[in-house]
């Protein structure tokens, strides 16, 4: 068995709640080869973020373990980058200072900070905006800043939790296509959580479908589309076939999730 990449073994997460224990994630066993791009889709509340937090070392699993490049994850690690859903830019710092923030915390030398920040800013298409403040940028540009901050840390693994959820559909598609292009250059191992099937197909080599409570992986779909993709792929027949396939898997789960949420409301 290869140690490279991410190995998830028997992972389960339970949370105490007023009505007893909530099993957020159960019995997840998956391997993500190094340098691959996997997306996780599933209805709201099915455990996607919880599973991602376990991989990031931000949430301790109740059972099982995650190994990244052969090492058991026991807490946050600078080799595992995380891009959050919400805007995490610091308003009092300009773009370059925002991108350098994590490196400053991580003890990277000033010279390296400058070089790595500029490389990451160029990579996410923000060249020329180094000294702009977040308030003057669009939501999409602020998410690029957050992405650059993570990439500048040069992690082996990048985890993204619905990073474009707050953006309009067009910006999402274009940013998604850019993330894909960045990945084709950096070849980090990426796990991307989304509830948008189209986004998952556009970006990934493989899509996992998660069930509603207990959250477990019920389907794994290989995305057999050309490696070189841009936003125009969403109108192809192959893309639509994959979309239908994943939607069929997800439909029953989404209904089940919706009914259970209605009941517990
Ligand atoms: P998703 O990302 O798929 O929307 P989450 O992973 O956020 O789902 O949540 C899965 C389930 O676990 C939900 O029922 C949620 O309410 C519950 N949950 C998540 N985090 C906590 C927590 N810290 N304490 C209690 N319950 C939680």
Concise account of the structure shown:
With 265 residues, the protein is an alpha/beta fold. The chain is 38% helix and 24% strand.
Q: What would your notes on this structure say?
A:
There is one protein chain. The protein is an alpha/beta fold and 265 residues long. It has 2 domains: 6-79 and 157-264, Rossmann fold, CATH 3.40.50; 87-154, no CATH class. The chain is built from 7 helices and 10 strands. The chain has helices at 48-56, 95-105, 110-123, 139-152, 169-186, 197-203, 237-264; strands at residues 6-17, 20-32, 37-41, 63-68, 71-72, 80-83, 157-161, 189-193, 206-210, 217-222. It has a 6-stranded mixed beta sheet with strand order 6-7-8-3-9-10, sandwiched between helices. Strands 2-1-4-5 form a 4-stranded antiparallel beta sheet. Helix 5 links the parallel strand 7 and strand 8 (189-193). Helix 2 (95-105) packs across helix 3 and helix 3 crosses helix 4 (139-152). The protein starts with 5 loop residues before the first strand and ends with a helix. The mean pLDDT is 90. Bound molecules: adenosine-5'-diphosphate. Adenosine-5'-diphosphate (ADP) binds at residues 15, 17, 22, 24, 42, 44-50.
């Amino acid at each position: 068995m290869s140690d490279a990449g991410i190995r998830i073994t028997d992972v389960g997460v339970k949370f105490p709640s007023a009505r007893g224990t909530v099993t957020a994630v159960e019995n997840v066993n998956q391997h993500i080869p190094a340098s691959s791009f996997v997306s996780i889709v599933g209805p709201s509340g099915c455990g996607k973020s919880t599973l991602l937090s376990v991989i990031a070392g931000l949430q301790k699993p109740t059972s099982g373990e995650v190994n990244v490049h052969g090492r058991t994850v026991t807490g946050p690690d600078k080799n595992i980058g995380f891009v959050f859903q919400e805007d995490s830019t610091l308003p009092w710092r300009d773009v370059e200072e925002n991108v350098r923030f994590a490196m400053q915390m991580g003890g990277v030398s000033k010279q390296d900070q400058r070089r790595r920040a500029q490389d990451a800013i160029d990579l996410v298409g923000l060249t020329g905006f180094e000294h702009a403040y977040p308030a003057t940028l669009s939501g999409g540009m602020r998410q690029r800043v957050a992405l650059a901050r993570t990439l500048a840390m040069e992690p082996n693994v990048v985890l993204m939790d619905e990073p474009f959820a707050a953006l309009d559909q067009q910006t999402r598609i274009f940013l998604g296509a850019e993330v894909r292009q960045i990945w084709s250059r950096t070849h980090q191992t990426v796990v991307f959580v989304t509830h948008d099937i189209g986004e998952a197909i556009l970006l990934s080599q493989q899509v996992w479908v998660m069930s509603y409570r207990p959250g477990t992986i019920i389907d794994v779909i290989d995305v057999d589309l050309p490696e070189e993709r841009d936003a125009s792929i969403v109108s192809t027949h192959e893309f639509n076939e994959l979309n239908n396939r994943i939607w069929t898997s997800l439909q029953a789960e989404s209904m089940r999730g919706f009914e259970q949420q209605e009941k517990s409301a």
